[in-house]
Amino acid sequence: MMERTLMALAAAAAIAAAAAVGVFSAFFALYALVEPHLGSAWAAAIVSVTAAAVVGLAGLLAARKVEGDRRAHAAAAATPDQGLVDAVLKIVRDRPILSAGAAVAAGIYALRNPTLVAAVVRAFVDKPSTPPRN
């Protein structure tokens, strides 16, 4: 589990780095395209305005997503309670960085307390001694 989480984080970092390189090269290509026609100062200004427009558009999209999430949370609050597993999975989907940090902290805690890990595993693996009442 820990290895999969670390691999997912490494993949996310690689994707972010690739996106940053792609954005940088796109703006450099824009500069190289505009610079012979307008000069270096105007080309730099056009690249800056384009970068500001991209950031503004990303901000608008993020704001719309947050507003949509608020609506979804309000709708979810109106629904009846879910089970513990569903609630945990919802938190993992909504806050992946928080859940990755919690997984790392739980892994470190488990490494320092192997008796606790053994007790938890035993609780899930052992069969109940008495049959449950109906």
Overview of this protein structure:
The chain has 134 residues and is an all-alpha fold. It has five helices and no strands. The chain has helices at residues 2-38, 40-78, 84-94, 96-112, 114-125.
Which helices and strands appear, and what pairs or packs with what?
Elements: H1 2-38, H2 40-78, H3 84-94, H4 96-112, H5 114-125
Helix pairs in contact: 1-2, 1-4, 3-4
Keywords:
134 residues; mainly alpha; 5 helices; 87% helix; elongated
> Whole-Å distance between the termini?
36 Å
Shape: elongated
Give the % helix.
over 70%
- Oligomeric state of the chains? single chain
Chain-averaged pLDDT: 79
User: How does the helix and strand content classify structurally?
Assistant: mainly alpha
Q: Evaluate the radius of gyration.
A: 25 Å
Helix-strand sequence: HHHHH
For the biggest sheet, the summary is:
none
Number of helices: 5
Low-confidence stretches: none
Percentage beta strand: under 5%
The total count of strands amounts to 0
Q: Quick gist of this model?
A:
With 134 residues, this protein is mainly α.
